[in-house]
Specification:
Keywords: Lyase, Magnesium, Metal-binding. Helix content is about 45%, strand content about 15%. It is an alpha/beta fold. The chain folds into 2 domains: about 130 residues, Enolase-like, N-terminal domain (Enolase-like, domain 1), CATH 3.30.390; about 240 residues, Alpha-Beta Barrel (TIM Barrel). The strands form 2 sheets. Strands 4, 5, 6, 7, 8, 9, 10, 11 and 12 form a 9-stranded mixed beta sheet that branches. A 3-stranded antiparallel beta sheet has the order 1-2-3. It binds magnesium ion.
Length: about 450
């Protein structure tokens, strides 16, 4: 029997940064030297079970302190809440956070504040799933359709998706869910890998990693493009030669281009049969994406990792601007808003191929796709979750990849919990790694 008097007692925040820029891991046309970072929080409670809610959002270094400050600004909304009530209905807190009228001015529903809300909301879902003793995908898949609908904020969506339509989609999603859950546990969820294709890697490293990806069972890889066309032609040719004609090869420009340039550049790479062009232009440019999509056919268009909220996703779908919707677990306001985005995608029949990588994004987003397969869209056809083989060792329940598939998590929670030793080492600027690094006399002397 859960203690009805248990309260949230604290939110502890951490500025965690990893020095990934030194190996050019994660380098792309827009982000040449990312230090993968997490603005991380722990919800602690007075419950005797000792469970904590862990959550974070992802940044790439400088500004992670700003992101942590935004999480700190939400503390007053959370501390003191009843744990039982919070976990029974995370949508109440989500609406309170989004609805703080003074903080809302900083968005609304976009950017640093919104990502902070996502970190807190995701920590609540982690806590709720741990208290239920279920991995989050299972908690969502087992939930009653009407309750899931109650977790969604339909404000600004009803011209495209009504609560009744959402209920219908989720009710239909229940048919065959038990068989799909069994299939998921047996087979896992399809993944693709971005690890070979970072822009800063040599052709030799690209070839070696692309060949390894195919040998490991992946059927899709992704390459970063957009800095220099001649380089892109050479790298696409190199990668295509390494993987052969049957492996899907996506390309990703990380918002580098204007619309006309996106069309020209993508078409200049068409001979290498790219599967999709990702983030060809600004994530805010809905009509621009639609124009690119018309201009690069039969290459498909994918975007979403920087799409700031459910309303922009709605427009991308309404404008027929994307072939694949790449939601991110930690850019929007957490599980609640991602439920809305999954429902929108299901309504429009557009496959969701989530963004992952960074720090812990694979750990989080696998749960959303697995729920979508088991209890919403009911299919993995044309659906893949991004996989990047970095930094998983810092998590207590890291993702497991098996023959190109994410293995379904079985541990309770949202797979969000980082090891205490990693928090201690990589907390910026006073963790053990950074303290030693910043004390080094020259950049060359650093790790
Ligand atoms: Mg990308």
């Amino acid at each position: 029997m859960p203690d009805p008097t248990a309260r949230i007692t604290s939110i502890d925040t951490y500025d965690v940064r990893f020095p990934t820029s030194r190996e050019l891991d994660g380098s792309d046309a827009m982000n040449p030297d990312p230090d993968y970072s997490a603005a991380y929080l722990v919800l602690r409670t007075s419950a005797a079970d000792g469970h904590e809610g862990h959550g974070f959002t992802f940044t790439i270094g400088r500004g992670n302190d700003v992101q942590v400050a935004a999480i700190d600004a939400l503390r007053g909304h959370v501390v003191g809440r009843s744990v039982v009530e919070l976990c029974a209905d995370p949508g109440v807190l989500y609406r309170d956070l989004v609805g703080d009228s003074q903080l809302r001015w900083l968005g609304p529903e976009k950017g640093v504040m919104h990502m902070a809300i996502g970190a807190v909301v995701n920590a609540v879902w982690d806590l709720a799933a741990k208290r239920e003793g279920k991995p989050l995908w299972r908690l969502l898949a087992d939930a009653a359709p009407a309750w899931l609908v109650s977790q969604v904020d339909f404000r600004y969506l009803t011209d495209a998706l009504t609560p009744d339509e959402a209920l219908e989609l989720l009710t239909k999603g229940k048919q065959g869910a038990a068989e799909r859950a069994a299939d998921l546990l047996r087979r896992g969820y399809p993944a693709y890998t971005t690890s070979p294709g970072w822009l800063g890697y040599s052709d030799e490293k690209l070839t070696r990693l692309a060949e390894e990806a195919v040998a490991d069972g992946f059927t899709q890889i992704k390459l970063k493009v957009g800095a220099d066309l001649d380089d892109d032609i050479r790298r696409c040719r190199t990668a295509r030669a390494a993987v052969g004609p049957d492996i899907r090869m996506a390309i990703d420009a990380n918002q580098r281009w204007d619309v006309a340039e996106a069309v020209e550049w993508t078409n200049a790479l068409a001979e290498f049969d790219p599967y999709w062009i990702e983030e060809p232009t600004s994530p805010d440019d809905v009509l621009g994406h639609a124009a690119v999509r018309r201009g690069v056919h039969p290459v498909k268009v994918a975007t979403g990792e920087h799409v700031q909220n459910r309303i922009v996703f709605k427009q991308l779908l309404q404008a027929e601007a994307v072939d694949f919707l790449q939601l991110d677990a930690a850019r929007v306001a957490g599980v609640n808003e991602n439920l809305a985005i999954l429902l929108l995608a299901a309504k429009f029949g557009v496959p969701v191929c989530p963004h992952a990588g960074g720090v812990g994004l694979c750990e989080l987003v696998q749960h959303l796709s697995m729920f979508d397969y088991v209890a919403l869209s009911g299919t993995t056809e044309d659906r893949v979750v991004e996989f990047v083989d970095h930094l998983h060792e810092h998590f207590l329940d890291p993702v497991m990849i098996d023959r190109g598939h994410y293995r379904a998590p079985t541990e309770p929670g949202f797979s969000a919990t980082m090891r205490q030793s990693s928090l201690d080492a990589y907390r910026y600027p006073d963790g053990a790694f950074w303290a030693a690094d910043l004390a080094a006399p020259t950049p060359e002397a650093r790790a």
